[in-house]
Input
Amino acid sequence: MAGFLIKRFLQAVFVIVAVTLVVSFAIRLTGDPALMLAQGAGSITEDDLARIREALGVNKPFFVQYADFFIGIFTLDFGRSFLGGTPVIDLIKSALPATLMLAFASMFVSIVVSIPLGIKAAVSRGKWADQFIRIISLVGLSFPNFWLAIMLVLLFSITFQLLPPSGMDGFASFLMPALTMGIILTATNVRLVRTSMLETMQSQYIMVARAKGLSETTVLYKHALRNCAIPLITYFGLQFGGLLGGIVVVERVFNWPGLGTLAFDAVGGRDYPVLQAVITVLSLLIVGVNLLVDIAYGLIDPRIRTE
Amino acid sequence: MTEHAPILRIEDLSVEFGASRVIENLNFSVAPGKTLAIVGESGSGKSVTSLSVMRLAEMVGATYPSGKIIFDGPDGETDLLSLPQKKMRAIRGRDVAMIFQEPMTSLNPVFTIGDQIAETLILHEGMSKADALKEGERLLDMVRLPDAKQLLKRYPHQLSGGMRQRVMIAMALACRPKVLIADEPTTALDVTIQAQILNIIRDLQAELGMAVIFITHDMGVVAEVADDVVVMWKGKKVEEGPVKDLFANPKHPYTQTLLSAVPQLGSMNGEEFPKRFPVVIMDGETPRLVGSEEIQNTAHYDAEPLLKVNNLVTRFDIKKGIFGGVTHRVHAVENVSFDIYRGETLALVGESGSGKSTIGRTIQQLQKATSGDITFNGRTFASMGKGDQQRLRQEIQYIFQDPFASLDPRKKIGFSIAEPIHTHGLMDSSKQIKIRIDQLLERVGLTSAHADRYPHEFSGGQRQRICIARALASNPKLIIADEALSALDVSIQAQIINLLMELQEEHGLAYLFISHDMAVVEKMSHRVAVLYLGQIAELGSRQQVLETPTHPYTKRLLSAVPVADPTREHHRVMLDGEIPSPVRRVGNEPALLTYQEIAPGHLVADAV
Output
């Protein structure tokens, strides 16, 4: 176990170095943050720009800047935002809970909905319930997230005026962003659960469980589900990465003050420290979730536990 | 003779999957304390019959257009087919229980043995978890599993196949069922383990007075266990009767074919050489005799051996410590030496984990030897360059157990057969290759028109013929047949045995015949090597090893083989225990065996 954890820690460090290195390098190709800040300030000389660059620290060689940033990670010091000068860590502290809430809520909703639906589709394979669930899930899969978000706003905020169209203000404002993410995730997961369940149901031990005289509910939810969960959990772990990617778009549409909005603004404003910090936090989240997935494996499957 | 009233009667049962009728107007019955064997080849409908009795067949899509399944239970006679599933669930697992073929996949991998046994007891007997576990311990004792208390906490993957099948039996018998259905319960097991399982089922049947429906394709097992036999063919019952009558005087042509094809261990006592026998095959509804009796005196013992294996050792590293150091190794092959002569069949026999397949794979260079040398045609593998080693793959060919898995499903079989010719650059013109493929297909009993078809369009026996044609394509000198006949029905198996022996005579082929089936080995090998835990226990001519077995393990193995003769006394030695594992901790080396030559060419390992 100790060996496993050490290995996973080293992997996490490698992932974060690789990701932040690429992102830090790439954003510096988009142009000069000093020009960005100087915009609208009237006449600006080359000297003024140089002074701004020095103040921001972007006149130093790239690797020196990167090293400064990387050392900062360990003290949670990500520097100050280029835009407005707020300490980056404060921005993260306020944005992270908003994003986590959205991510886990949509993940939770999708798992709670897709497992019974997927199982229902699998057991009634080829019958109308299966066809219906599969068609609905295909429709769900076909929605681009930004389009779905806009349609929800049109429907619930403009036509019916039930929910606020943007911002984070109480539970009502939370519904639409979570729904947007949740619908798309659920559509994918229903199909996954169905396929995995169909495969599990072919197993001999399912026939044995039925031969014992157990009810179908026990056979499905006790004997089949735990076996079918093993491949599903892997996928849910991988999906979390994609989910965070989707959140950037959805947060933007609903003006949700999370990491996605933060990252979006940082890219637009060439705000290097904020972007680097957001990417670091997102990588850590993905690595962390996948570590949880590995641990969950062991809990579910004794074959992995004893290895 | 006093007859009990039957406890289960099948009357005019038909079963359909969609539009295809897989069972037609089936009738039979079984009485308490009696064993009814249902025999037939793959696709004969025997498994569907058992699933129908359990009312499980409809969960995989079956319908019952006609028939009754009358069970004479505690509440009087009931037609199981008319019960709603809810009522059937109370009978299933309590009054009628079932053991399945695949012990490796029959237990749920994520629950402990204890949980899985207790489940049945909690469900049907209304026991508390603690009581159910206590009863589970007793049941595990009953099926002679050691350390029952510990076993309750173990998971299926920690148990061997034989142990898992015993757990399955314990589970099936938990509520003392009136009827036990055993669907090929020993097919996937080694013979010594099979003998143990059959003994356990027999003893418990006597103790509990159950009726047993025993489904099998193995006539040897039928002869050992059955009181009565039902023979099924293409979904119909073609014959039934008491086991002795049926074996002595089979009436239906199919039964006659089936019995004529069954290899019987001991039937060739006194014969010096292996022999080809004519085979009865079903030509539509009528049996037809093909082939003739020929003595297979093809081995060239006067010349140098074709293949010499000298002190071969093959080990695999498994289980590593935190720092990557190896802590355990599989000692698959230890210090094995033997020769194969041109035109000779050497059988490697042994049970799972004996290393017989690893030897074959090492000779075919699919696996690297840890030490020792292999000499082919006078040259050692070690002295050959890459190119020569590659050429060796032309001269040594391999036939695998599963013919379907060893043919590419997306390629026409003509392509698969031509592949060795292309790989080794044996012919250039596509016209020549085409002619060669046609010749090969015809030689193995197919036609040139088959070359344009895909593997799924063939039956199992035909696929194995295709694999043989592919192996022949590169004009090999040695063919390694790794359990190549094990997946085939007996009548097909008998035909393939004859084909292999004919090819041996025509081309002077040498075979390394890897098998666990002693009766087949007796029919076709010149010499036999018995492997036990990676080492040779006994090596000699077929007659020496099979007629005068000397090593205790050889005796044990032979005594465990079921013989297809119900009149024979069951003077079996009581077999106990498991086959030990070849996995060893690093540094804990196995003791190497030493040998005595008790007769010319008959080597027997000294007892350790």
